[in-house]
Write a structure and sequence with these properties.
This protein has helices spanning 11-20, 47-62, 96-106, 173-179, 181-194, and strands at 2-6, 26-30, 65-75, 116-126, 133-143, 159-161, 166-167. It has 196 residues and is of the alpha/beta class. The two termini are 18 Å apart. The protein has one domain: Maf protein (Alpha-Beta Complex). Helices cover 30% and strands 24% of the residues. It has a seven-stranded mixed sheet with strand order 2-1-3-4-5-6-7. Helix 4 (173-179) crosses helix 5.
């Protein structure tokens, strides 16, 4: 079993990565297990740049196999916002319920069928004596005004996934990982890894 160190203290994100790796010869270990609490500021201008910042910081501390991702919600009617600022949208201290309300306000005049959006995930794997593996994937959907479902996290309760006819927060973990940006990114990364 190969240990992959994941550059996150977000338990939900770590769990999704573990679900995506289920059945694979990899064990995902979070930063807390290593006694590492802090990460550098995400100062990049893209998801890939931010993922690389996090991966590099952890790799310099721990070496081995280090995985980092940066992900966010991109709303077409808002020109791709909040994008890389998704977790900080409307302030770092605002709850996701407050973020939902602000998004709904911004989209007041946008018809439901035009509330298209996607989650984007950039993932970086760093290894000793090997080139970085970088992948980027997405999951498309539509933003709702009302929350549905208790699973998932972040913007999942208002993100409607057409192929399932439910929000991302109404999907089971296996369902979500089969279509999610993070699940697709893990599979793309593992495919690239197997080819090296």
């Amino acid at each position: 079993m190969k240990r992959i160190l994941v550059a996150t203290n977000n338990a939900d994100k770590l769990n999704e990565i573990r679900v995506a790796l289920d059945g694979m010869p990899f064990e995902a270990v979070g930063m807390k297990a290593l006694g590492i609490e802090s990460m550098p500021d995400e100062t990049g201008s893209t998801f890939v740049e931010n993922a690389m910042i996090k991966a590099t910081a952890l790799f310099q501390k721990a070496g081995g196999y280090v995985l980092a991702d940066d992900s966010g919600l991109c709303v077409d009617a808002l020109g791709g916002a909040p994008g890389i600022y998704s977790s900080r949208f409307f302030g770092e201290e605002t709850s996701y319920r407050q973020k939902f309300a602000e998004l709904s306000r911004l989209l007041t005049d946008v018809p439901l069928q035009e509330r298209t959006a996607h989650f984007s995930c950039a993932m970086v794997l760093l290894r000793d004596d090997a080139e970085p593996i970088i992948v980027e994937e997405r999951m498309d959907g539509i933003l709702l005004n009302t929350e549905f479902g208790k699973n998932g996290f972040g913007y999942d309760p208002i993100f409607y996934v057409p192929e399932f006819g439910r929000t991302a927060a109404e999907l089971t973990s296996p369902e979500k990982i089969s279509v999610s940006h993070r699940g697709k990114a893990i599979r793309s990364l593992l495919k690239r890894l197997s080819e090296t």
